[in-house]
Amino acid sequence: MSALTSIKLTPWLPLAVTGASIGYAITVLTRLPWWTLFFTAAVWTGIGLTLRWGKPTNARYRPVWPWSLLPISLLGIYVYLVDSFGSVDLGAVFFHLQAGMAEHGGAGKMVMAMLYTLVVLAVLISITWLTRHDQRWRLSERFIAITLLAANPLLYGLGQRSAAIVTDDGAWLDRRYMPPPDSELSNPPNLLLLYLESIERTYDNELFGDAYADLNVLGERGTVFEGVRQMDNTGWTMAGMIASQCGVPLMPAGLLHDSQFEPLTQVVPGVDCLGGILAEQGYRLSYLGGASTQFAGKGLFYRGHSFNTVKGKEELVPKLENPEYLNSWGLYDDSLYDFTVQEARRLSTEDDGPWAIVNLSIAGHAPHGFPSQTCLDRQGEFDGQNILYSVECSAWLARDLIERLDEEGLLDNTLVVLLSDHLTMRVSVWDQLTALDRDNTLIMLGDNLPPGRIVRDATMLDVFPTILEAMGLSLNDHRAGLGASLLSDKPTLVEVHGLNVLNERLREETALQHRLWEGLSPQRRTIEESSDEKNSASQVVETPADQAVEVDIMR
């Protein structure tokens, strides 16, 4: 006898389970308050009992499996991703699966995933019970299955990406790629590049009090850039780093990777990035981060792009005075910044040419942040939920680090860049943030950068050439990668085409993906190149409208 036949369920239980689940999904996918899930569950259960769902007058049991089991499971995955991160970025999902998720700090996310799994299983059992006991459900749920498949944004995104294989023009972005120049710096400055995890400039708003105040104080000493928006495939840590250091969105390797069931061995090897350019100029390069360098290919990226020193949790924890002073990701920022000061001292003492330090903080990490003990001593008790507490902590620690380095004279002839790696994901003030026009933090402090504000429509792609020009490097037409220097009058891609157009073109792009991952699939690359030679004439043909704007950005 089937297990579901022997289970004695009264109709109200599966109705209540499905009703509560529908209510919760609605609150996640909309801005309705959390308590509306109880209202939704009550209405759903009331309708079901009134219509005698699961217990019709002429009930006939059939041991069938509902069509909607898979669509419901896929929808559950989508709701989980939205609930966890605020939005679903398929590029992030695919990249992390291929680059590796070892040593991640998302223990809370794992617990949440297990709870979601249990809830989805309960929904599947409930739907199966209703379908087997009620012929009306057997007839209608197959239409529900089709509706759920068609409406699931997760599947829509997969379909869009698959359609890129047969698109008419899969090289729109690649044609706009500008390789960085080989020119030399006459008086190369040092570089301190501080990524402030999820600390977007949107927090500089009266809605959020003084959370961003310390970054505003730093901004008064240098150049503040407003309007650095987030395009697709730049919205997670590695993607933000690659966009701002290589001038390209991070398109996952996908099928270009020869060994689909093995981790990547290189990260975007086909483009010239900040590390390689500075190494050519004789720079000594260091990356320091509190989390593991094994997560999401961070170590592979930095080592593969000419960094001499790459240190994360594994290398830094043994050097802590208290090895137990850790969060779920790794080091707290006060510990990390102490090591950053030590690294700046070491590089400055060696006097073997200019240096560059790239640093990634953790305090602002969604959903609640990881404020360090020095912030707890300064700001008082943390309730474990309020992200603004963590934002204030991150901003103050960054200001304190720069002031410490400045007092020691370690920032002489040094360009300091503070920027967010990406916009934050779902946090306690998510509804307020998403109601605003959001943009990333970008602040530069340097001897040749007068205090002021530059307001431009830009993306993280434009940070790359802006850093190069701020360091004194001459660029071809003020461009590098897909970006344009914000210190010049050169229009950015988003200024010319708009963010929606860029995102649409990105979903159709294949040539840029091949460029990023050149070397991982030599046979496929050879085939593509031979095809390019045969069809070179057709690949430069564009519509008249496309050619008209091309004069402004590609001359």
TrEMBL record:
Q: What is its main location?
A: membrane
A Gene Ontology CC term for this entry?
A: plasma membrane
Give the PANTHER family listed for this entry.
LIPOTEICHOIC ACID SYNTHASE (PTHR47371), PHOSPHOGLYCEROL TRANSFERASE I (PTHR47371:SF3)
Q: Where in the cell is it found?
A: Cell membrane
Q: Can you name this protein?
A: Phosphatidylglycerol--membrane-oligosaccharide glycerophosphotransferase
Annotated transmembrane regions = 12-29, 35-52, 64-81, 110-131, 143-159
Mind listing the UniProt keywords for this protein, alphabetically? Answer: Cell membrane, Membrane, Transferase, Transmembrane, Transmembrane helix
What the entry lists under InterPro entries is as follows: Alkaline_phosphatase_core_sf, OpgB/LTA_synthase_biosynth, Sulfatase_N
Name of a matching Pfam family: Sulfatase
* Composition-biased stretches (Basic and acidic residues): 525-535
Q: Which GO terms describe its molecular function?
A: transferase activity
- Ranges of residues in domain Sulfatase N-terminal: 189-472
